[in-house]
Amino acid sequence: MPGTLGLIGSGMIGSAVARLAVAAGLDVVIGNSRGPETLADLVAELGGTARAATSEEAARAGDLIVAAIPLAAYRRLPADALTGKAVLDTANYYPERDGHLTELDEGELTSTALIQRHLADSRVVKAFNTITPHQLFSLARPADAPDRSALLIAGDDAEAKAAATGLLNVLGYDAVDIGTLADSWRSEPGTPAYIAPYLGEVPAMNVDDFLRWTQRAPGIAVPAARIGELLRAAVRRPAGEARPPSED
């Protein structure tokens, strides 16, 4: 289990992961594209085990890295600083936000495989992409809790996936390994395991109203067995069909 978690990205998912990590007793180093000075309020809220840094500093400092950035910004991930690191990718592909990427639209790559290609000397694992930020924080439970939820992971490196599983366990979740990066389409927007299971029935609304609504929704526990059922129901469709919940 990492002593220091490096976080690249301080949006809603990144902040939720940071809060869980600090609560679990991990040291947290957070970087973003705007500079450490923009993270003062978040770091003050998180407490003494968190500190602000540049993205490259967070990459070098972390024993394990969470990249919580929009997919469109993936080329900004500091590949040199992430050499040899296990990197957990939280991004989802939404063409209307990220711009159309032919390899994803045609199913040649998954979004995480695209990031792995950029981070050729890192070991990338898909994680944290199927749950909204508020529910990620509110549904976390101890290992022996009867209402503990599970989250999906996917990756090509067994050691990196073991590290991701360990982090999820410490943060309050079981892990369901869905296979390789090529298999990670099963966790993409529009698939049965994506977001809806943790929320229940979602009223029709625009993206901004949806985000406000999730802040009030208590969330629904989704155990590993239920994740398995949802995976079996997955059908691959053109990437990016769903609307973005702006989770990054």
Percent of residues in helices: 25-40%
On the 0 to 100 scale, the average pLDDT is: 93
Shape assignment: globular
Please compute the radius of gyration using only Cα atoms: 17 Å
What portion of the residues fall into strands of 2 or more residues?
15-25%
Query: Class by helix and strand content?
Result: alpha/beta
Highlighted features:
248 residues; 34% helix; 11 helices; single chain; eight-stranded mixed sheet; alpha/beta
How would you characterize the overall build of this protein?
It is a single chain. With 248 residues, the protein is α/β, with parallel strands linked by helices. It has one domain (4-232): Rossmann fold. It is 34% helix and 15% strand. Strands 3-2-1-4-5-6-7-8 form an eight-stranded mixed sheet, with helices on both faces. Strand 1, helix 1 and strand 2 form a beta-alpha-beta unit. The two termini are 24 Å apart. The model has no long low-confidence stretch (mean pLDDT 93).
